[in-house]
Amino acid sequence: MRHEGELRKTVAYIRNNLVKTQMVRQWRTYPWRISRELEA
User: Fold this and answer.
1) Are 38 and 7 in contact, with CB atoms under 8 Å apart?
2) CA separation for the pair 16, 6 (Å, rounded)
3) Which residue has the higher pLDDT, 38 or 20?
4) What is the DSSP string of 24-40?
5) How far apart are the first and last CA of the chain?
6) What is the C-alpha separation between 18 and 1, in angstroms, rounded?
7) 31 conformational bin, left if phi > 0, alpha if psi -120 to 50, beta if neither
8) d(Cα 5, Cα 21) in Å, to the nearest integer?
């Protein structure tokens, strides 16, 4: 990632994709989620 904004955008996409594909109801319940430091 070139900068923090791009990283956050990518993380948001991944989280939302988990919900859209119905792998989880809420991204926070996914056991292998990305670092808590990036949670918004």
Assistant:
1) yes
2) 15
3) 20
4) -SSGGG-TT---GGG--
5) 18
6) 21
7) alpha
8) 24
Tokens 């926070």 label which residue?
A: 28
For residue 20, give its domain range.
4-38
Contact between 8 and 16 under an 8 Å Cβ cutoff? The reply is: no
Please tell me the pTM assigned to this model: 0.57
pLDDT at 6: 92
> Is pLDDT larger for residue 39 or for residue 7?
7
Whether residue 11 contacts residue 34, with contact meaning beta carbons closer than 8 Å, is answered with: yes
> What's the domain count of the chain?
1
